[in-house]
Amino acid sequence: TGIRLQETPSGLINSIGLENPGIPHFIENELPSMLSLSPVTIANLSGSSYESYLEGASLLDKTSVPMIELNISCPNVKAGGMGFGLDPKIAGDITSQVRKVTSKPLMVKLSPNAPDLLGVAQAVREAGAYAISLVNTFQAMAINVEKGCFVFDNVKAGLAGPAIKPLALRMVFDVCKDMAKLPEKERIPVVGLGGIHTWQDAVEFIMAGANAIQVGTATFADPLAMVTIIEGLESFMDRKGYKKIEDFRGCVL
Question: Which sequence positions are flagged as catalytic?
Fold first, then answer.
């Protein structure tokens, strides 16, 4: 119930949360059709406690899903609601615990609201993360001026869309630059996301060091956004004479 989406200049504030039918229902009803498609299926796993994360990872481990994206931006109900991904020690610990119950590659999704983002990124890497994805939404809010009340029942919600792209790009750059300081065999891939709307946005993230990108909010307005981005990226690479992404990935690092 309540308002779920609020448009804002160049962005979208959402208070959808992570509403879903649960992992058993997903495994039985949605996963088979996803696995039948050609793109690689990645299951995004969230939880509100260590137990729920571990239970979810154990269930997904028994399936054929190729990879788990561990969303540690969720609030830890047993730690006063603080997000698992805001503290390097807690982020590393939950990653390590999940790592023990599944052999699937783990991509850990980081929160931009972490005071020490580089510390969190290195902590999950050391704890066994296969890759890192960032950023999740930025904490935001909206007020209904006519009614003099908050727009969202939870008061604060997540800002996404083009408005956050410059911030997300900077954070992805920071993490990629920090990762590049390590010996090559110790580095893990970084997947960039946050406000990617055009092929130019995608190129920026790749040049900042991202191995891959994710697109979310753009598809709300244009379901074919990802196709358009891929086509634009291909045209850009042809024009520049790039044969593969690695030819320009991280060129500004």
Answer: 74
